Amino acid sequence: MTHALSCLKYEATIRIKLLEAVSLNTFCFKNKSKGNETFNLVLNRKNTLILRPILKDYTMWYASWFDTPYYHILYKDRDHREAQAFMNNLTNYLSLEPKEKILDLACGKGRHSIYLNQLGYDVTGIDLSKNSITYASQFENETLRFRVHDMCKPYPEKFSAVFNLFTSFGYFEKEEDNLNTIKAIKSNLNQSGFGVIDFMNASYIIDNLVPEETKTVEGIAFNIKRYVQEGYIFKEIRFRDANEDFLFTEKVKAIYLDDFKNYFQKAAINLLDIFGNYDLEKFNPKESPRLILIFK
Questions:
Q1: 186 φ, ψ to 5°?
Q2: CA atoms of 54 and 39, how far apart (whole Å)
Q3: For residue range 56-107, what is the model confidence (pLDDT) as tens digits?
Q4: Alpha-carbon distance 146 to 58, whole Å?
Q5: Residue ranges of the domains in the chain?
Q6: CATH number belonging to domain 58-296
Q7: What does the alpha-carbon distance between residue 282 and residue 222 come to, in Å, rounded to a whole number?
Q8: DSSP assignment, residue 128?
Q9: Strands (E), 201-295
Q10: pTM, to two decimals
């Protein structure tokens, strides 16, 4: 324990705290610049003793959950072939030429960005998750780059297309940040550029919600509970690893087509087309799994 604590770069005072539903090996550190921080002393998946902060502020849950290795473990089996087929359909529909610049907004670990670059486009992927960007950066080349950036704010370049894919929208606690993101997309489009938001069809998702399920990935049993509350779709994810219990909650606003039209009106954006799946078939409010918006 002494060796682990010596690795901290700041002076700390330690007192054992008993917290409900948390490992008993829990400590509170007081730091002059960071205030009070609470940690678990746990063994990670490589059997290394580490100090893991206990997150108290979930107003930006996506900034913490997306940065954990468990997020990527749980979703490791996402369908890459479906994603690639969607990119083929979308770039063909938009008549994008090779070498045109595309911004992949909230790119995660870069699966769409990497494939778009393989198709011949000059791609920039941005995400708030430092871990995701660090991982994606290994694939960088002269026409593919990844940066940490908040999508609520304009990126300092113009693009032929800005893609916000796979329900990477609606996470914000503040309603104005949804509109700010729309405005940021508009500001990043060149004169002939197109914006694309690939969002869930909230009506379809709610009608077909699976209340509870368990997924076992890499030996970890993820117990998942889904529910709708106060206009948001919640997904509680509970699991145990390294002798520690974890709970993360995903929270996405149930945004409907009329809501997006309202955002677009406020941002002076023209909605050009609406699709309901990755084959770019027309949107059906009850039957379509996706809500894909093309605008400029």
A1: -60, -40
A2: 5
A3: 333 455 556 777 888 878 887 766 888 999 999 999 999 999 999 999 999 9
A4: 26
A5: 2-54, 58-296
A6: 3.40.50.150
A7: 35
A8: S
A9: 212-217, 220-229, 232-241, 244-253, 271-275, 290-295
A10: 0.77
